[in-house]
Amino acid sequence: MAKKGESNEVKSGEKGITVKKSEDISEWYSQVILKAGVADYAPIKGCMVIRPLGYSIWTRIQDYFNQVLESYQVENAYFPLFVPESFFKREAEHAEGFSPEVAWIERKDLSEERLALRPTSETIMYHSYSKWIRSWRDLPLKINQWCNIIRWETNAVKLFLRSREFLWQEGHCVYETEEECIKEADEYIKEYKNLCESLLAIPVKIGRKTDSEKFAGAVFTNTMEALMPDGKATQLGTTHHLGQNFSKAFDIEFLGKDSQKHYPFQNSWGFSTRLVGSMIMLHSDDKGLVLPPKAAPIQVVIIPIFREDAKEKVLAEAEKLRKSLSGIKVKVDSREGLTPGWKFNEWELKGVPVRIELGMRDIENHAFVACRRDSGEKQSFKLSEAAQVIPGLLDEIQKSLFEKAVNSIEKRTKKTADFVEMVQEINKGNWVEVPFCGEKPCEADIREKTEGITSRVITGNISKEQGETSCINCSKKARYFVIFSRAY
Fold it and tell me: CATH 3.40.50.360: does it fit domain 413-487?
C-alpha cells in the first residue's frame, strides 16, 4: 500500500515506464517525473519534493533569466512569506480574486492580525515601496524575487503543473510614466517567449488575456500559453500592467519634476516551476525524459565499456574525452557493478541528450559512438573530432525538438466561427481560435456550457477589412479573435 501523499501506481524507486504516453498521458507523466528522479510526492497533500535533477533544471532556467534581469537593470531581493490580512484588503479586486486560494495561519492570540502565506507578493512588497519611493529620482524601481508561493488549490494536483506550493520568479517594477510601464510589461512577455523557445524548446503563443482571465487588480494581463500533448493549455507566464491601482491603494507617491505629488505606474510579471513540468510533458517519450540540451543539467554522458584488463586504459580515455568537451556539461559514468546496458537504460530514463559509448575497440580505432536521446540515432565519430561534432549534435537536437513541437501545435491549432465545431475540436485535443465578444457573462456561459473550456489568449483584433463578425457564443459583435481550450 502506498504511503500517504504517494501515488498507488507509481513508486520512484521502480525502473522503467510501464504505460504509453499515447494511452494514458496522466499516469505516464507521473511515472516519468518519479522514476527519472525529477521530483517525488511529499507527505503533505498538494506538495512535492523537487529532487536534485528537477532543481538543476530550475537552476538552468534561473541562470538564463538572471541574465535577462540584469540587462533590464532589475535587481534581486527577498520579501517575507507572511502577508498581513489588512494588506489584502487595501486593493479590493485583488483581495477578491485571491481569497479562495489564500492559506491563513492559525492564531494563538486572537488579538493579533491574521497572517496569510503569500499567494503572490504585490501587497507585501508595495508596503516597502511606499517607504522607499519619494522622488522621481527614485524611479524606475525594478525588483525581482525568486521564492515559493502558497495557493490552496482544491483542484486535482499534478506534479509541477498544479500544486499548493510552487517556486517562481516575480518581478515588480515602478515607473514615472504609464508609457514606459506598458512598454516593459510588453517586453517582459517577449523575454518569457524567448526563454521558452530558445532554452526549453517550447513553442508558445503570447498576447492579452480577456477581462475575465486577467490578473486581479490589473488594467490588462499579457499571457504566454502552450498546448500540451493531451490537448490542454498551460499558462506558462504572465505580465500585468497594474496602472495606478496599487500605488493608490498603498500610498506610493513621488514628487515629480514639476514639484507636484504623483502616483507612479506599476507592472508585475512572473513564471513558475510549471515550466519544468510543461517541458517534460511536451518532449518526453515512453522511455522516459527527453531534455533539450540547453536545459539539461548533464548534456553528455560517457559510458566506458571494458573488461577488467582494459579498465585503466578505457577510463583514462573517457576522462580525456570529457576534458576535450570544454563548455559542455559532461559526466563519465564509471560506477562499478552495473552493466553498460543498465547504464544505457538509466541515462535514457533521465533524458541526457547525448550518450557516448567508448570501448577498447573504439579506442583502437580512435573513435567513439554517440547516441541521440531524442531519436535514438547512433553515429560513429573520430575522437579527434569530438570537440567539433558534439556541440553541433547538441544544437541539432535542440532545433529538432523545437521544430517537432512547432509542427505538432500547428496541426492542432484550429479556426472556426461555429460553437459546436469549436467544442468538437477541443474535445479532440486541439485548441481553437474563434471570434469572441470579450464580455465576462458570455465567457462564464461558455465555461458552464462546455464544462470547463476557457479563453487562453487574444490572438488579434478583428479588422475593418475582415468585416463585422459575430461572437461564437452570444452572436453579439466580436471584438477580437481568441484561442479557447481546456487547461491545467
Answer: no
**Grid cell 525502473 in the structure block, residue:** 15
Cell numbers standing for residue 392: 553541433
| pLDDT tens for each residue of 358-391 | 999 999 999 999 999 999 999 999 999 999 999 9
Q: Are 288 and 35 in contact (CB under 8 A)?
A: yes
Over residues 163-185, mean pLDDT = 97
Residue-level pLDDT at 5: 40
Query: What whole-number distance in Å separates Cα of residue 413 and Cα of residue 203?
Result: 12
Peptide bond into 441 cis (omega under 30): no
Phi–psi pair at 92, nearest 5 degrees: -60, -45
CATH 3.30.930.10 fits 73-283, yes or no: yes
Give the separation between CA 2 and CA 392, rounded to whole angstroms: 45
Task: Specify the pLDDT at position 468.
Answer: 81
- Each residue's pLDDT tens digit, 275-331: 999 999 999 999 999 999 999 999 999 999 999 999 999 999 999 999 999 999 999
CA distances from 86 to 83, 107, 112, 123 (A): 8, 15, 12, 9
Per DSSP, the residues of 395-462 read HHHHHHHHHHHHHHHHHTEEE-S-HHHHHHHHHTT-EEEEEE---HHHHHHHHHHTTS-EEEEEEEEP
Decide if pLDDT at 431 tops 50: yes
Range 293-397 has CATH code 3.40.50.800: yes
Mean pLDDT calculated for residue range 411-418: 97
Consecutive H or E run containing 305? strand 300-305
Domain residue limits, the chain = 73-283, 293-397, 413-487
Cα–Cα distances (Å) from 148 to 72, 119, 448, in that order, read 23, 9, 32
Mean pLDDT of 67-75: 99
Residue 443: which residues within 8 A CB-CB, separation 6 or more? 210, 212, 213, 436, 454, 455
